[in-house]
Amino acid sequence: MRTRNKYRKPTILGCNAGSRYSTSVVVLSLLGCLILLHLYTYIHHTDRTGGQSQLRLNHHPQFIELQEVEEENIQIPPPKGKRSPRAAKRRPKRTTTLIDEFLDENSQLRHVFFPGHKKTIDPIQTPANESYYYYPGRIWLDTDGNPIQAHGGGIVYDKKSRTYYWYGEYKDGPTYQVHKKGAARVDIIGVGCYSSKDLWTWKHEGIVLAADETNETHDLHTSNVLERPKVIYNERTGKYVMWMHIDDANYTKAAAGVAISDTPDGPFDYLGSQRPHGYESRDMTVFKDDDGTAYLIYSSEDNSELHIGPLTEDYLNVTSVMRRILVGQHREAPALFKHEGTYYMITSGCTGWAPNEALAHAAESILGPWETIGNPCIGGNKMFRLTTFFAQSTFVLPLPGFPGSFIFMADRWNPADLRDSRYVWLPMIVAGPVDHPLEYSFEFPLWSRVSIYWHRKWRLPHGSSGF
Ligand SMILES: *[C@@H]1O[C@H](CO)[C@@H](O)[C@H](O)[C@H]1NC(C)=O
Ligand SMILES: *[C@@H]1O[C@H](CO)[C@@H](O)[C@H](O)[C@H]1NC(C)=O
Ligand SMILES: *[C@@H]1O[C@H](CO)[C@@H](O)[C@H](O)[C@H]1NC(C)=O
Ligand SMILES: *[C@@H]1O[C@H](CO)[C@@H](O)[C@H](O)[C@H]1NC(C)=O
């Protein structure tokens, strides 16, 4: 066609015979434009969603190590001896699964889930510099040699002292049930605080918000529930603000409490609790955005949905703005983070102390809409991935200096002895395409994949956290 046109006499205005020629030119250039646009959005998009950071991370030998898929092959032993009532009640007739074994206090696999259980203290946990390894699920000791008590916790980096502060439930008391149908519980003792320069060596700073042992009408009375304390720093007021789930033993109060301190290591003054926006609030977290606006995110309406709304400038109250998100999805244990302008969140299902499948969600705007992008867990075995490695999300900490890399923090609850619940921290990387993209822009997904890699032991790459 082109050759034919080449020998055609040019006609005025390119009409007549030339019209076919110009049509194909128009079609071709349109095609070219589309291809260019596609290429542009692709490049633009990979940039925005972490293509670059993946490149950077992929070239870092220690990150290659962290992204290696580590398999677990655990054989379920034949049933023998008596099952604890907790496991027997759960699945009376069907074949046992790893979850049954996990919930069975008499399981022969107990040491797999709770290694170093009871008396033994693992020598690897000695804070010697050679052993800056995290062992998810083992007993973690503080610098005094005591097991760390910071369950359902979160971390704040204090710029002034260049120190990380880890806050969580101090549960070093006996586990019991108030009545037959009640959940296993430990009386409120308070919020434990630990400090660290390297995210590995943790010094106990004491109980920074303590239970009230005498006043039965006080939120913090020992008979109540204090869960998932999270602290954020307010640059405007110079105060450290703690939000937490406050409840009665039957979880009918469903409120959010707030406390305040001048210093990260407390003591925190308790200011009170409320049902935010007038709604039930159970599992919750707070998230501070780059612009200094902080948000409260909580499970509501019988845990069937999450609510999210900005806090006031002093972080001490909610505002009138609130959005319902993940409606009808029954998620709890939210942990929010942000990567290259996109908001991400990990949540768990609602199965009490028993572990379940984690899901990652993403949003362009923090108030939503939020899309569910799938199970982020990689490695272990199928049951590990379907139980968040037998743990439940609590917090996500960005690794400074390594964009797109995070520490995923989770709790491996031990319902038989809650004080002996373990920490499961794992490397999390946000990069690459999602498995089942739900939302497309020019046929390219809006979000990156969130990947949490199972490791029996791992350590932070050099350069992060002041190593
Ligand atoms: C620990 O660190 C010190 C000083 O940083 C060094 O001299 C020593 O060899 C290290 N020990 C181990 C076991 O790596
Ligand atoms: C007990 O706690 C309630 C609620 O915080 C408070 O109003 C009351 O003053 C407290 N009572 C005493 C004796 O401190
Ligand atoms: C919790 O529920 C039990 C049984 O329904 C009841 O006996 C108890 O009084 C309740 N406790 C609180 C603090 O509501
Ligand atoms: C929090 O804000 C609500 C209105 O959004 C208000 O009714 C309430 O009194 C405030 N609480 C405190 C402790 O300031």
Automatic annotation (TrEMBL):
Gene3D superfamilies: Glycosyl hydrolase domain, family 43. Residues 73-94 are annotated as: Disordered. GO terms for biological process: carbohydrate metabolic process. GO terms for molecular function: hydrolase activity, hydrolyzing O-glycosyl compounds. InterPro entries: Glyco_hydro_43, Glyco_hydro_beta-prop_sf. Keywords: Glycosidase, Hydrolase, Membrane, Transmembrane, Transmembrane helix. Belongs to the glycosyl hydrolase 43 family. This is Glycosyl hydrolase family 43 protein. It comes from Phaseolus angularis (Azuki bean). The lineage of its organism: Eukaryota, Viridiplantae, Streptophyta, Embryophyta, Tracheophyta.
